[in-house]
Write a structure and sequence with these properties.
Low-confidence stretches: 395-402, 666-695
Structural class: alpha+beta
Strand order of the largest sheet: 2-1-3-4-5
CATH topology of the largest domain: Rossmann fold
CATH architecture of the largest domain: 3-Layer(aba) Sandwich
Distance between the termini: 159 Å
Oligomer: single chain
Number of helices: 27
Largest sheet: 5 strands, mixed
Number of strands: 24
CATH superfamily of the largest domain: Resolvase, N-terminal catalytic domain
């Protein structure tokens, strides 16, 4: 073997550098399995024995602590680059598994070594990848190395899965649990338990993870977290509750007393990254409910998952149920399209200074570039549903009001106990710091000063915690005094007034709707059909008239139009507008009436003009009656002014129609002549036989 080895090493190999590749799979092996590392570094002496000087031996050890199955090793990439550029005469590794446990990387290295005439050395000897026999042997070693890794992993995974099937696998417990004698139990720290129960209670009440975080912030409550790494590993720290903490707790089935394993799997992408995929429940490897105590029942855990899923569906393709928001749309997230069955979305418009909802089924139109399936203004629909709920929920009893008061008081009591536990914890830490300081030798000033500073810090934290507790307690006492309790009782016994109260937020109304309704199906045709499905299975159908178009909402009332039609028989436009304004009537645009507005209404609604009405009643024009009486039309106007003729105005500009003259009118007119002066007009009898015109 020695002679064969020296025959493979030629002068061309010695002109290039020798590359020693050192690798350990994990950092734990680097620190504990030191002999393997020493053996790998010892291969430098093998390179020296083959003829390479010390300064021509390059050691690559940047991959210490990385697995050989990884494809993104920096040191290995550096080695492949050196070989491909012809800088390496030989590659040294203790065994094939140290160079690579991946067939792709290993055979790529062999191919490049064969092209550049680079040797490979391991503990067994020297190989030339350009020779078939050596390459065949190296390929077998690489395959066995990869298979060895698979066997080791399968052996370890088999033991883990077998233990997980029995529910005895010890995994890192979530916050609120500890292991005691191999069994998972609740954390003995009462403050931690109370914080978790407060979280579940807040989510049960609000139905939203974000609202739960907001509730903790408003109450000034802290949430525990366990440190999993570093010098303070295992310690509990208290901080502000975050949204990710709430989701992590709500999604973890261990809080419901169930042992689960294999809820997710890791996939490797083409670019070398890893993604975590969460599996549905029927694909979990192990699911054992009720194996240890929990903070809630499994039924409540499933209900929380459904709530979270409904909240998340507000941002999905179908935009299903979502948590109630601040907008006035009462059926937001509950209304279904009766035509295509999809979830309808909400749009808002400002109309007359008011925010008005509109329910739209637009998903199919967006996907297929088609017209919107159906849309409907939501004000009328919300009003009908609101009146129906008030009618159904009207008889609220005294027991409900008392239950509401008790629940509110219980919430405040739980928050007060949790804040008190926080003060007790800080007080304990201050007392502990005090005892440490009193036990130290006064002459050891380096330690004494540090302990004294820590004691002062704990005392300041205790003072702040006590002040915060007193402030919060005072606020809680102000919340429910006797007068407010009486007000709550009065509101609880009068649900309609609570519902219609302007101070009741729209979000609270929508929460009440979700307690009663499962969903509402809407179908628009000649009429609007609403199918309401209540919690518990009952249903109700409501028929509504078709909604008004926007211009129809501006139309003047039909009663007002009828009144204008009646008044046109006896009055002009100006008289009609004054009469309607005196009665307090308004137009469709909520404006007072004017002469021009009455004229436009007459024209738009095709009401018969006053002129036509008077003509149909037999009225004559000034020209016609003057011709009938044989006088000048100007004389007719003078006679009208002095009341000798009955006239009716048909415009506001002094235009009149006249009643036909009676039987004695012609005789009466024959005995009358007129005299006109600049200052006066007087009647002169015909007996004078002349007309006197004084100028």
């Amino acid at each position: 073997m020695s002679s064969d080895t020296h025959q493979k090493v030629t002068a061309s190999h010695l002109k290039r550098d020798a590359y020693l590749y050192v690798r350990q799979s994990t950092l734990r092996q680097v620190f504990e399995n030191t002999e393997s590392t020493k053996r790998q570094y010892g291969l430098r002496q093998r390179a020296v024995a083959l003829g390479w000087p010390q300064d021509h031996i390059v050691v690559i050890d940047t991959d210490l602590g990385e697995s050989g199955a990884s494809t993104d090793r920096e040191g290995f990439q550096r080695l492949v680059t050196a070989v491909s550029m012809g800088q390496a005469g030989i590659v040294l590794g203790l065994e094939v598994s140290r160079l690579a446990r991946n067939s792709t990387d290993w055979h790529r290295l062999l191919e490049i070594c064969a092209l550049t005439d680079t040797l490979i050395l391991d503990e067994d000897g020297v190989y030339d990848p350009a020779h078939f026999n050596d390459r065949l042997l190296l390929g077998l070693k690489g395959t066995m190395s990869e298979a060895e890794l698979h066997v080791l992993r399968a052996r370890l995974q088999g033991g883990i899965l077998n233990k997980a099937k029995r529910g005895e696998l010890i995994v890192r417990p979530p916050i609120g649990f500890v292991y005691s004698e191999g069994h998972l139990v609740l954390d003995p720290d009462q403050q931690i338990q109370q914080a978790l129960r407060m979280l579940f209670e807040a989510f049960r009440r609000t139905g939203s993870a974000l609202a739960t975080v907001r509730n903790f912030r408003q109450q000034g409550l802290l949430f525990p977290r366990r440190i999993h790494c570093g010098p303070n590993r295992g310690e509990i720290i208290w901080g502000r509750l975050e949204h990710s903490h709430v989701l992590r707790v709500l999604h973890n089935p261990r809080y419901a007393g169930a042992f689960v394993f294999g809820r997710s799997r890791t996939k490797k992408t083409v670019d070398g990254n890893h993604i975590i995929e969460f599996l549905p429940r029927d694909q979990w490897r192990t699911f054992l409910p009720g194996v240890h105590p929990g903070y809630l029942s499994w039924e409540e855990y499933e209900q929380n998952q459904r709530r979270l899923q409904e909240n998340a569906q507000a941002f999905g393709l179908d935009r299903r149920k979502s948590p109630p928001r601040e907008g006035p749309a009462l059926l937001q997230g509950l209304i279904l399209c009766g035509s295509c069955g999809r979830r309808m979305t909400v749009r808002y418009h400002f109309r007359r200074g008011r925010l008005c909802p509109e329910y739209v089924c637009q998903r199919k139109g967006i996907e297929n570039a088609e017209p919107i399936c159906q849309r409907l203004p939501g004000v009328e629909v919300d009003q009908v549903v609101s009146e129906l709920l008030v009618e159904l929920v009207n008889p609220v009893t005294l027991e409900v009001a008392l239950a509401v008061q008790q629940e509110l008081q219980a919430r405040l009591g739980e928050a007060d106990r949790l804040r008190k536990q926080q003060v007790e914890r800080v007080h304990y830490e201050a007392e502990l710091a005090k005892r440490r300081y009193l036990r130290v030798d006064p002459d050891n000033r380096l330690v004494a000063d540090s302990l004294e500073a820590d004691w002062n810090h704990k005392l300041r934290a205790l003072t702040e915690a006590q002040e915060e507790y007193e402030r919060r307690s005072e606020e809680d006492r102000k919340i429910f005094n006797e007068e407010e309790r009486a007000a709550i009782f009065q509101l609880a016994t009068d649900f309609p007034r609570l519902w219609r109260d302007a101070n009741t937020p729209d979000r609270e109304r929508k929460r009440m709707v979700r307690l009663l309704l499962e969903d509402v199906t809407l179908l628009r045709g000649e009429q609007i059909t609403l199918h309401l499905r209540f919690r518990g299975g009952t249903s109700k159908t409501v028929i509504l008239p078709p909604p008004q178009r926007s211009w129809e909402s501006w139309m003047t009332s039909s009663d007002v139009i009828a009144e204008i039609d009646r008044l046109l028989d006896h009055h002009t436009h100006q008289e009609i507008s004054a009469f309607l304004n005196e009665r307090g009537l308004r137009s469709g645009k909520d404006q007072s009436f004017t002469t021009r507005y009455i004229a436009r209404l007459q024209r738009n609604y095709k009401l018969k003009p006053r002129y036509d009405r008077l003509r149909e009643a037999g009225m004559l024009t000034a020209q016609e009656i003057a011709q009938a009486l044989g006088v000048n039309p100007k004389t007719i106007r003078i006679w009208r002014t002095h009341g000798l003729l009955q006239a009716h105005a048909y415009t506001d500009k002094g235009d009149y129609l006249y009643e036909p003259p009676g039987k004695d009118a012609p005789k009466k007119a024959q005995g009358i002549k007129f005299s006109r002066r600049v200052s006066e007009v007087r009647l002169i009898p015909e007996s004078t036989k002349e007309v006197q015109c004084e100028t």
